[in-house]
Write a structure and sequence with these properties.
Keywords: Signal. InterPro entries: Class_I_gatase-like, ThuA-like. It comes from Nonomuraea solani. With 316 residues, this protein is an alpha/beta fold. It has one domain: 3-Layer(aba) Sandwich (Rossmann fold), CATH 3.40.50. Helices cover 16% and strands 20% of the residues. The chain contains five helices and twelve strands. Strands 1, 2, 3, 4, 5, 7, 8, 10, 11 and 12 form a ten-stranded mixed sheet that branches. It has a two-stranded antiparallel sheet with strand order 6-9. The longest helix has 16 residues. The protein starts with 46 loop residues before the first strand and ends in a 7-residue tail after the last helix.
Length: 316
């Protein structure tokens, strides 16, 4: 069920004038042949790279520690890195093939943040419950994974200063919900070319998610093509399309984005913070089995998570 576009919500805080004037322009303005952006949709909220779009309402106290909720429910095709569907409730038993969730649990253990996980939509149907987490991660969710109550709770949570992290097929989720599309940075998955090696270009090395990364690093992924194309975001990394030996053309004919093909970005949205990456397809990325670039990806993801949680500066 889609929720309509939200009304302006910042007037009481004296920031209504900021809604459409303070957001920074996109750091990526070229959209590639056949993928021109013919107008930036108005999601009716304050969004962009200006921190004044954030609602610092005191809902998250560092003294309480840092907590992440991982949500990986699928309402359509299921990525192999998710493995067997999880049982109901919070933190159900994991199977050997639930490698992506296990990897995030390990990142939390190694970096000082607590991780809960679920594929039970009832665990997301209360904004009050979500506010016990500094951030919510959608990990390769697919199609319609939220009911009306969970949609409302997620929106209220973000408006209260909550954090959102979208990984890989989070872009193939809740397609017909405009507010969620805006949360992704005005972006959606359209199609992808072959799963293949390529070169990731780190476009900003000031952000917590890119510090220490090489300027260029090899990685294997599906290299998502996006419609619409992200706007008013800070692009953190992109793929060098010339490094894709099997081409970038997608299964539905998308020709790619040329020199500006983003794979990770961040922005403020409707009072909250969002860090997004289309990367993370290959199962080996999430396991101890080596694949070129996997440690750079996990370092990138960890920095992004920590920045949204509040453990590091956000979107620099």
């Amino acid at each position: 069920m889609a929720i309509g576009r939200s009304p302006l919500s910042l007037a009481a805080a004296g920031a209504a004038a900021l809604l459409f004037t303070a957001t920074a322009p996109s750091s990526a303005v070229s959209h590639g042949t056949g993928a021109q952006n013919l107008g930036d949709p108005d999601y009716g909220v304050c969004r962009g790279t200006d921190a004044r779009c954030y609602h610092d309402w005191g809902n998250f106290d560092p003294a309480d520690g840092y907590r992440l909720l991982v949500y990986s429910r699928t309402g359509g095709p299921r990525h192999a890195h998710l493995g067997t569907p999880l049982g109901p409730g919070l933190n159900p038993p994991l199977n050997d093939d639930n490698v992506a969730v296990k990897a995030v649990l390990k990142l939390g253990q190694e970096n000082g943040f607590a991780v809960d996980y679920t594929e039970d939509v009832t665990q997301l149907n209360s904004a009050g419950r979500l506010l016990s987490y500094n951030a919510v991660m959608f990990l390769s969710t697919t199609r319609d994974t939220l009911d009306d109550s969970a949609q409302t709770a997620l929106r209220q949570y973000v408006r209260a200063g909550g954090g959102f992290i979208g990984v890989h097929n989070a872009f193939g989720t809740e397609y017909n919900w405009p507010w969620y599309e805006g949360l992704l940075g005005n972006a959606n998955f359209y199609d992808h070319g072959p799963n293949q090696p390529g070169t990731v270009v780190t476009t900003s090395r000031r952000d917590a998610s890119t510090q220490g990364l090489p300027q260029r690093w090899a990685f294997t992924d599906e290299w998502y093509n996006l419609v619409p194309y992200p706007t008013r975001v800070k692009v953190l990394a992109k793929v060098d399309e010339s490094s894709l030996a099997r081409g970038v053309r997608g299964s539905l004919g998308h020709p790619g984005h040329g020199d500006e093909h983003p794979v990770s970005w961040c922005h403020y949205y409707d009072g909250g913070k969002a860090w997004l990456t289309t990367l993370g397809h290959d199962v080996k990325t999430w396991t101890d089995e080596p694949i070129e670039g996997d440690q750079n990806f996990l370092r990138h993801l960890t920095g992004g998570v920590k920045s949204v949680l509040g453990m590091a500066p956000f979107c620099r």
